[in-house]
Design goal:
The protein is α/β, with parallel strands linked by helices. It is built from seven helices and nine strands. The protein binds S-adenosylmethionine.
Amino acid sequence: MRFDILTIFPKSLNSYLKESIIARAKKAKLIEIHLHDIRTFSKDKHKKVDDIPYGGGAGMVMTPQPLYDAINHVKKFNHGPVIYLSASGKNFKQTDAEKLVKIHALQKPKNGIILICGRYEGIDQRIIDLCIDREISIGNYVLTGGELPAMVVLDAISRLIPGVLGKEKSHEHDSFSKALNRKKEYPHYTRPEKFEGHKVPKVLLSGHHKEIENWRKSHLK
Ligand code: SAM
């Protein structure tokens, strides 16, 4: 599945994308990630990407031209939805990640998604009206930019793509999965059996699969 990420801080994402599961998924060609620096599309002689807001007020707004050109450039390679990460978007849920994977990774692998990271007070409304298919929020709080939300969306989707987690780990019994009735998962324990006076629940040591399953079911939240 292809991800195109438009940002004015592409370097800020490099370290995350070069580690662990996401890096392995890239290497195995299960995901393709393309970072685009919005600033390089600016026609301003100083490569400016922001300006003061009409109507006054504090803060700057991302100007439409660089974003418009950047989005149209990327759309030549990626025919998936253009998503703006925005605090005023719809809250992102596990079911949204599942839907995006079903459509784009399984049915149309070449049509991934295009993620737009805002900065300052956000982007000019005309870009939202002209180019954005969907606005996604990762929670009811405000961050300084859309880069971390883009990583959240990319990560939540990528781990659902078959093969990304590897054989040893399945996402099918994680929190919010269908198998867990969309509930939060049960507690996990590993060795040692006793730690700082706290013992592992006896049933988990019993080897009795049915009882363990019942205990786990009864500890879903
Ligand atoms: N003025 C905006 C508001 O009140 O909603 C906040 C802009 S914020 C400082 C800059 C950028 O961070 C936004 O354009 C958006 O891309 C991103 N952002 C901030 N909070 C977010 C959230 N909860 N979910 C997704 N993106 C967010």
